[in-house]
Write a structure and sequence with these properties.
168 residues; mainly beta; 4-stranded antiparallel sheet; 13 strands
Length: 168
């Protein structure tokens, strides 16, 4: 069993890249490649919040809005789910991200270097089935903050990952 802890920053590790940063994953490097049947368990404390707009837009790692204080008028349906797309102020270092749609503020992972993505949120278990393509097995986990604009993000999450190896 392997235990890993990593901090994912909502700006530096945003799926989009802008002048202020983003586009760089938080990375967990495994000691050896994942095998079919290996299990990854992810947890993030529910009380951890990050912010996608510098204002009252706090979310947990599920991308669920958690507003501290009095109710505010934000139509979250206009943001969730979101597909990052480059515009004049941003680039998409992982072009396939435009084919995926997760809630703003969702913790997202990739086991293939940013070619495909999966939602992690606050509590998630994944069993590696292998890719069946004959390509090399994953040796690293990349973690991102899912968003459409990196410059105004604030906060970070501590992510705990447990790797249980399948018995041979």
């Amino acid at each position: 069993m392997g235990l890993y802890q990593v901090t994912v920053d909502s700006q530096a590790n945003s799926i989009v890249q802008q002048m202020g940063g983003g586009g760089v994953p938080a990375i967990i490097q495994f000691r050896e490649a994942l095998n079919p049947g290996d299990v990854l368990t992810f947890t993030c404390p529910l009380i951890q919040m990050w912010n996608s707009g510098g204002g009252p837009g706090n979310t947990n790692a599920d991308g669920v809005a958690v507003n501290m204080g009095p109710p505010i008028s934000i139509d979250w349906t206009t943001f969730n789910p979101a597909r990052p797309a480059p515009d004049s102020s941003s680039t998409l270092p992982f072009p396939n991200a435009a084919n995926y749609s997760f809630g703003i503020g969702c913790l997202v992972g990739s086991l293939d270097g940013g070619t495909s993505f999966f939602a992690i949120g606050t509590d998630f278990t994944l069993t590696n089935l292998g890719n069946g393509l004959g390509t090399s097995a994953p040796t690293a986990l990349w973690l991102f903050y899912w968003d459409i604009n990196a410059d105004d993000n604030r906060g970070s999450m501590t992510v705990y990952v447990s790797l249980t190896r399948r018995a041979s």
